[in-house]
Amino acid sequence: MSNSISPVAVIGAGFSGTFTAIHLALRLPERQVILFEESGEAGPGLAYRRDDPHAVMNIPARRMSAYQDDPDHFYHYARRTLGDSVSPEDFLPRRVYGDYIKHCLDEALQQCPNLKVDYRGVVDVQTNTASSVAVLTLKDNSALMCSRVVLANGNQGSAFSGSIWAQHTLPARKASTFDQVKPGQTVLVIGTGLTMIDAVLELERQGNAKQIHAISRNGLVPQPHRNASLVQPPELDELPDSDLQRSVRLFRQAAARHAKDGGDWRDLFAALRPATPSLWEMSPHDRGRFLRHISPFWEVHRHQCAPATHVVFQGLVDSGKLDIRRGTIVSVENKDGRLRLGLAPRNRAAITRWLDADHIIDATGPARDITTVRHPLITNLLRRGFLVPDEHRLGAQIQADYRALQRNGYPLEWLYVTGPMLRARYFEATAIPELRLHTAALAARLAADLEPKVRLAAAV
Length: 460
Ligand SMILES: Cc1cc2nc3c(=O)[nH]c(=O)nc-3n(C[C@H](O)[C@H](O)[C@H](O)COP(=O)(O)OP(=O)(O)OC[C@H]3O[C@@H](n4cnc5c(N)ncnc54)[C@H](O)[C@@H]3O)c2cc1C
Fold this sequence. Notes:
Elements lengths: L7 E4 L3 H13 L5 E4 L36 H10 L11 H18 L3 E4 L3 E5 L7 E5 L4 E4 L1 E4 L17 E3 L3 H5 L5 E6 L3 H13 L2 E8 L27 H17 L4 H8 L3 H4 L4 H19 L4 H13 L2 E5 L1 E8 L2 E7 L8 E5 L1 E4 L13 H8 L19 E3 L5 E7 L5 H4 L5 H19 L10
Parallel strand pairs: 1-2, 1-7, 2-3, 7-17, 8-15, 9-10, 9-15, 10-11
Antiparallel strand pairs: 4-5, 5-6, 12-13, 13-14, 16-17
Helix pairs in contact: 1-3, 1-13
């Protein structure tokens, strides 16, 4: 089959894959684009599925448009479907966002006859060195030749899933986890980030847990979202100079000045957002230091939670029903159905504390190390050297045009990467405001690659 007529395969139909496929199908209406999704539901991905009906987004509606050049697109959709009472500042249910992605996909499917959704998982991709065409192996063992492949497999595994004690835990993302908690039971939650807050609120709604312990290495919890202050934040232009120590010092000084003027630290994090990719161009050594010492603080300040959610969460802490503990897990034992977890404090001289619980919920969030992802597709791509992790294994090494860099250091002609795997290059590639830029930019590059005629239209 010639390259000119082979389809483009987009693997994974969460936000990233769905919008890459939509942008691409609109740019190249003659080209077949196949969007593969193994969960049985295309659009919502892990974050916006319906199995978590009460969870709300952690960004207000006005900032959740899927299109950078149409900032009110989601807000208008929400008003059309939920009514005029929706305000741009509302933190809407995540399932509404899942419906929004599906709605955009349905519209594109009607508009672009060559865009298709295929509900089979992709388990492998092979090629031979002389060819620029890739062959996908699907879960039913059939094969499909493709001109280009976009990997948009998203958030997989969990940060704790590689642990030897993972067998004792229940996943926070599954509704069935919460059905297992019986009245009066004690629940231990691993992780103290946004996924923990979701889990704790779900336990509270369900009403059976008597005591909840949440643990993490640092015990830091997400901060609540707040509207920008009226005071203009200081300029941060001088920060992206790829010197970590200097950047941290300047950022702290700017935050202190802003607070003195009556501003809020959140404004600084908002101002820093567009500069994050250039800051991340620091040396591998500084990246390591950032990940070890600063990223736990960065995460809880940068990824804030909805104010109403935080009020409920804080109420549980204040009442003593939820306690947040800090330490490293050193053992988990199951003794006749009762679980006992050993927690070593930071101060190694102090003795290990023991926490007993009826259930342990893994709320550590998506895996932060791509080599721990157990999906056959990722295992195969890593094994074949088509995907190469960065030195901190946050994601896949790519070029600026989103092509994967293979083991020999050269870009692969046929493999593009998007979604959270872009963390390797940009660090922040998690939330919609970043991902919408990447989906549009990748589609423009890929369209220009396949049809040089459209190169001029690729406004990237
Ligand atoms: C719980 C949660 C809440 C969040 N809330 C917000 C928020 O409020 N605001 C915000 O801006 N961001 C939020 N985010 C971050 C962000 O929006 C998501 O991470 C983003 O949706 C990622 O989309 P994705 O398509 O890259 O990945 P995913 O959503 O993980 O989708 C990947 C899809 O690929 C499929 N797939 C994987 N491998 C294969 C394969 N081999 N074959 C076929 N299909 C495959 C999976 O089934 C999945 O559907 C949240 C993230 C999470 C996890």
